Amino acid sequence: MNEIPFYEVVEVLQTADSVSLGVSGNRGVVIGLSAGESEEVFAVLIGDRTYMLGRSSLMQTGERADPASIYAGDVVRVTPERYPDDER
């Protein structure tokens, strides 16, 4: 299997999934990976949104993005919501 490395710049091909998401023809950066049932699914950052696209929807460009240009260094803190029946 030809895995796409993190921070690879990819072209989004015209597939049913990419068309339904409205992203075919765009370029993006791979920032995540998930093993789908039939193929690997990649988190691709396009602009300021992340889309989940299968390997068949992506074409590698050979370009690599600088991770520092993607992550601003901001910290997000999330407090879990507690429900009355939760044990603490």
Layout of helices and strands, plus pairs?
Blueprint: E1 8-12, H1 16-21, E2 27-35, E3 40-46, E4 49-54, E5 58-64, H2 67-70
Antiparallel strand pairs: 1-2, 1-5, 2-3, 3-4
- Taken from the alpha-carbon principal axes, the silhouette is globular
| Helix content percent band | 10-25%
Mean pLDDT: 88
Give the structural class: mainly beta
What is the CA-atom radius of gyration, in angstroms? Answer: 16 Å
* Total E-strand runs: 5
Distance between the termini: 44 Å
Sketch the topology as an H/E string, one letter per element.
EHEEEEH
Task: Tell me the strand order in the biggest sheet.
Answer: 4-3-2-1-5
The profile of the biggest β sheet is: 5 strands, antiparallel
Low-confidence stretches: none
Distinct helical segment count: 2
Strand content: 35-45%
Sum up the structure in keywords:
globular, 88 residues, single chain, mainly beta
Please sum up the structure shown.
Helices cover 11% and strands 39% of the residues. The protein is mainly beta and 88 residues long.
Please provide a written account of the structure:
- With 88 residues, the protein is mainly beta.
- 11% of the residues lie in helices and 39% in strands.
- It has two helices and five strands, in the order βαββββα.
- It has a five-stranded antiparallel sheet with strand order 4-3-2-1-5.
- The termini are far apart.
